[in-house]
């Protein structure tokens, strides 16, 4: 009788309804595959080169220093020196006075900043516009908040005259974008520079989005974690600086991307108090705050950068220079084997067209797995090179339209990129023989 009773109890669903349909995750599968088979992992987005000395030294100083209070709780919404320096920096970038206590909130990475936004702004029945391809966590986060994601794809306008593709060739269709806004639309998520394409949205595109946000009274969650990684002298325009947008935009940033310290998990939001006050409610009642020592060391990193702003020694000047070089190496290596790279204007990702390889990859009968998934798995297992299928960054309904591409991360040591090049050169020889 007791065992029957226990069994009956165990048949009750344990998971909350809000988790239905969001329990599959591409990263679990691909991180495992890469760990098992790959010799060179250009899949997941993190640098394998060391963080700059000045942030590592700052952390050592904080750890070993006199101020033992840095090992205790700090202010819930952000360690005072960090919110202060972030308010100074973003004040300068946006050309407005920012109050460190009300216009800035520190989070556990940009991930938690995103989570706070969706929890704070999205109600049951609200729609949130997501531009495809997108950083994959936006969709489950909107759903967990009870909202409905509405997708609008960037459309590829293939360049003429055999020119190389660029992330700038992926553009919003203005009429299509406008058709997604209605009275249920609560917010749009903008990610510029965009993961996975590396697209840096132009002023015209941002004005289009801004006009629609103002017209329909819609919020903008602006994920700008790759803000310092912009190439070829291109300018990053911040949507919050456009007319009517400051009051309806939350900017999201990440020390992980800014200082090449993804493991520290320090992120932040910048925006008007009328929005941030609700983020503070979510933050206070979930995470409370992020590690004090990490916040203190990041604050010291920013203090240095603020002093060196625009100077050649600044990390924000040096890092994009180095990464642009790495991007160009990877472009060359991929072209050699016959992939067609889409030159990214920003981020540390590069997407390449793999439609020329269909005959190399065995068909799996009765499988509805997209070609890019099959290709990426085949490449990891047979060539030892890991990348991520692009359709992972699309909604279910649109995946099949974008299954001819894979994403590489080039924020890697020269030696790692050389090892990738060796694999690709060997592959090229095999193809030609
Ligand atoms: N937004 C985008 C677009 C990202 O690519 C990432 C990290 N891959 C994040 C947010 C999360 O950043 P963090 O590591 O600071 O949580």
UniProtKB/TrEMBL annotation:
Q: Which Pfam families match?
A: Aminotran_1_2
Q: Name one GO molecular function term.
A: kynurenine-glyoxylate transaminase activity
Its needed co-factors are: pyridoxal 5'-phosphate
Q: Which reaction does it catalyse?
A: L-kynurenine + 2-oxoglutarate = kynurenate + L-glutamate + H2O; L-kynurenine + glyoxylate = kynurenate + glycine + H2O; 3-hydroxy-L-kynurenine + glyoxylate = xanthurenate + glycine + H2O; an S-substituted L-cysteine + H2O = a thiol + pyruvate + NH4(+)
Q: In which pathway does it act?
A: Amino-acid degradation; L-kynurenine degradation; kynurenate from L-kynurenine: step 1/2
Q: How does it assemble?
A: Homodimer.
- For this entry, the protein name equals Kynurenine--oxoglutarate transaminase 3
In which organism is this protein found? Serilophus lunatus
């Amino acid at each position: 009788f007791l065992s029957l009773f226990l069994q009956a109890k165990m048949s009750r669903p344990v998971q909350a309804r809000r988790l239905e349909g969001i329990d599959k995750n591409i990263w679990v599968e691909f991180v495992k595959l890469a760990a098992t088979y790959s010799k060179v992992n250009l899949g997941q987005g993190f640098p394998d080169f060391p963080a700059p000395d000045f942030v590592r030294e700052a952390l050592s100083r904080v750890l070993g220093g006199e101020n033992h209070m840095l090992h205790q709780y700090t202010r819930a919404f952000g360690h005072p020196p960090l919110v202060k320096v972030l308010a100074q920096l973003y004040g300068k970038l946006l050309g407005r006075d920012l109050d460190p206590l009300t216009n800035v909130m520190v989070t556990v990475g940009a991930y938690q900043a995103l989570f706070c936004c969706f929890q704070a702004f999205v109600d049951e029945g609200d729609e949130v516009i997501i531009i495809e391809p997108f950083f994959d966590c936006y969709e489950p986060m909107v759903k967990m908040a009870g909202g409905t994601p509405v997708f609008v794809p960037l459309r590829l306008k293939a360049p003429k005259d055999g020119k190389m593709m660029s992330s700038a060739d992926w553009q919003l269709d203005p009429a299509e974008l406008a058709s997604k806004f209605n009275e249920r639309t609560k917010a749009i998520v903008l990610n510029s520079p965009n993961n996975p394409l590396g697209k840096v949205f132009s002023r015209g595109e941002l004005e289009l989005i801004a006009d629609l946000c103002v017209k329909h009274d819609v919020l903008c969650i602006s994920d700008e974690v790759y803000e310092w990684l912009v190439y070829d002298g291109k300018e990053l325009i911040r949507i919050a600086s456009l007319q009517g947008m400051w009051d309806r935009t939350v900017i999201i940033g990440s020390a992980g991307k800014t200082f090449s310290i993804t493991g520290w998990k320090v992120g932040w939001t910048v925006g008007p108090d009328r929005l941030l006050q609700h983020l503070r409610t979510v933050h206070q009642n979930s995470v409370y705050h992020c590690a004090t020592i990490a916040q203190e060391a990041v604050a010291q990193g920013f203090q240095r950068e603020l002093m060196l702003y625009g100077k050649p020694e600044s990390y924000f000047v040096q890092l994009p220079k180095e990464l642009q070089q790495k991007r160009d190496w990877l472009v060359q290596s991929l072209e050699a084997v016959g992939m067609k790279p889409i030159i990214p204007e920003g981020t540390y990702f590069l997407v390449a067209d793999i439609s020329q390889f269909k005959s190399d990859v065995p068909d799996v009968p009765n499988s509805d797995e997209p070609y890019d998934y099959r290709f990426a798995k085949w490449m990891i297992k047979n060539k030892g090179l890991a990348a991520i299928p692009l359709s992972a960054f699309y909604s279910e309904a649109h995946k099949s339209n974008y299954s001819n591409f894979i994403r590489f991360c080039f924020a890697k040591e020269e030696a790692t990129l050389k090892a990738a090049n060796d694999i690709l050169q060997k592959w090229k020889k095999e193809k030609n023989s």
